[in-house]
């Protein structure tokens, strides 16, 4: 249970090896020990994350999760909940994709849309069902500023995040009164293993900054957070920029 | 089963405790008697159930997210009284307010009352409440001859200090997790009048307060000190100590002697629900505390006070918890053993230095503890304070917990809404025994609550 002062007792990381997921767990562990369920594919990286979080004081459970497997979300959520209520679930998996490849490879577009939109929507549905039954919980969904107004350079990724963002924003409204809430997180460019090798975009941020925003957002009961916060105003401006100008912007 | 269908369709309502923090929705079912409670039990609710009284626990003790909560306040009949011994048998939803209205005019007072009379008998046992007379009389449960407990198997078991004492002492202070308390036999306290003879002393700091309490507390039936937690340095712990006992009839003024047991307990007004967050800040609380300290007499003897004024000053304002605004507040209450005065002093310094505004804090000397496995009172000093929910509070209270547990102390389950489970385990070494009793009478954990889940009880 999340207590009166917002401290969290159990955390589920879906896509548990992502830098943002790990940073979020570390941020919580800096406050108090808690139960952390790492849901990810069975890889050496997952084992390393589990070990690291255990060393930081977590009671770690490891659960298999594969975004490509349609049966995986239901199984994963059931296994994660078998050990007790889930207070906070962070849906942190996703791929950036190769924009060049995505320009022409229809299969690659289909795969990216699946991993960035279809699978998160299925996971969100399973989590919402479980949390509605338990009468409490917070679902944190990693969206992106790229979903706010997709641009030519990575519009496939942007459109998939736009779908995810719309799904979780709507889910949040559908859960009013159930005791469950949803926090949609919209980071800008995050320096992480997902963006390794890419040049920083303006207002680039870090997994730790996103983790801070998640922890503060959950504690304060926010529905949307931007990272960095100023992104909200930047994107608001870009959203209202006429198309003829927008598509010429060097972003 | 039709009743199951009715339960499944019942709407969920958001519930909180008195601190108005961490609301969760549950199906609230009014219970008038044993059969209704048993029907809920028979429906095997997947998220379990817990009984709820007047919800004066500050925390999540009477909440059960996604599950069933039994509203026991509708079961409030007096079933039997023995005017010779003062023993009464009442349903668990009966409030202490009602008991006072009924029995004070007959010369009987509740054996133990907390700072509010709006608690039920069931809740008083489940939280094993204490009052200003703990050093003389112990807790409420120590005045219970027996109670009827509806357990998970649907049976009603009569338990008491000499009938299945393990189950009795797991239930006393067990926060409703052993079953539903249906009825209890309570031994009332004889009084000659409804007035208290009160001595008031103002002390300038914590040390002089503790010295005064140690030297003369045993001379009074009731004793409590209100401390200013905002004052710093030399004035830290300045306080107003009020102590007293029920007056004998011949101690009343002549005109009151004709009707010495005259008593009216009523709420005068309610706090409206419009207080903004942050109304209680350091400045407003410091100003309040200053006025309160200065208006109290330095030393006064044998002043006659009414029951409400002496025992339940805050009850004169209904729903006073609203003044903390929509974010609510927590109450932090701990006890440290005698000999650990340094830990108490250190805790007060940290609270005072933290800038977290608290209204008056309450200090009291506890007497002996009882066998209740999760019962709070133990010989030592107990301090209780209300703190509005603000950022940074979680860390301060975690640090205070460390201080308290290292001193051999503990926090109170009826108040706590944020202790770490692993620290709680260290505070209550009898927790394992409690779990064993629970495993015996409720192997599937049907009785559960947000509190139980939060602390893995």
From TrEMBL, chain A:
SUPFAM superfamilies, sorted: NAD(P)-binding Rossmann-fold domains
GO terms for MF: oxidoreductase activity
Domain of life of the native organism: Bacteria
Record's keyword annotation contains Oxidoreductase: yes
Keywords for this protein: Oxidoreductase
Family designation: Belongs to the short-chain dehydrogenases/reductases (SDR) family.
Protein name according to UniProt: Decaprenylphospho-beta-D-erythro-pentofuranosid-2-ulose 2-reductase
UniProt organism field: Blastococcus mobilis
UniProtKB/TrEMBL annotation, chain B:
Region (Disordered): 1-24
Gene3D superfamilies the UniProt entry points to: 3.30.465.10, Vanillyl-alcohol Oxidase, Chain A, domain 4
Domain of life the protein comes from: Bacteria
GO molecular function: D-arabinono-1,4-lactone oxidase activity; FAD binding
A matching Pfam family: FAD_binding_4
InterPro entries registered for this protein in UniProt: ALO_C, FAD-bd_PCMH, FAD-bd_PCMH-like_sf, FAD-bd_PCMH_sub2, FAD_lactone_oxidase-like, Oxid_FAD_bind_N, Vanillyl_alc_oxidase_C-sub2
Residues of the FAD-binding PCMH-type domain: 21-191
Protein name: Decaprenylphospho-beta-D-ribofuranose 2-oxidase
Organism: Blastococcus mobilis
